[in-house]
UniProtKB/TrEMBL annotation:
The keyword Iron-sulfur does not apply. Gene3D superfamilies: RNA-binding S4 domain (3.10.290.10). The keyword RNA-binding applies. Keywords: RNA-binding. InterPro entries: S4_RNA-bd_sf. It holds the Pfam family S4_2. This is RNA-binding S4 domain-containing protein.
Amino acid sequence: MFDVAISDQVIRLGQFLKLASLIDSGAEAKEVIADGLVCVNGDVETRRGRQLVIGDVVALGGQSARVSAG
């Protein structure tokens, strides 16, 4: 697991996946989220607009990234 710093208090799931380099584009984020391939704090998440806060853990394809303070 690695930490990814954000500048605000919250970030949308799709934006975070791109920021953490877990995906390459917004279109790819839409696909992997819709396909149920993304977990937030251990639960499958299908909402691209899900608001993440500091401490949340996002997993995709065997990689995990934690939202941290910038």
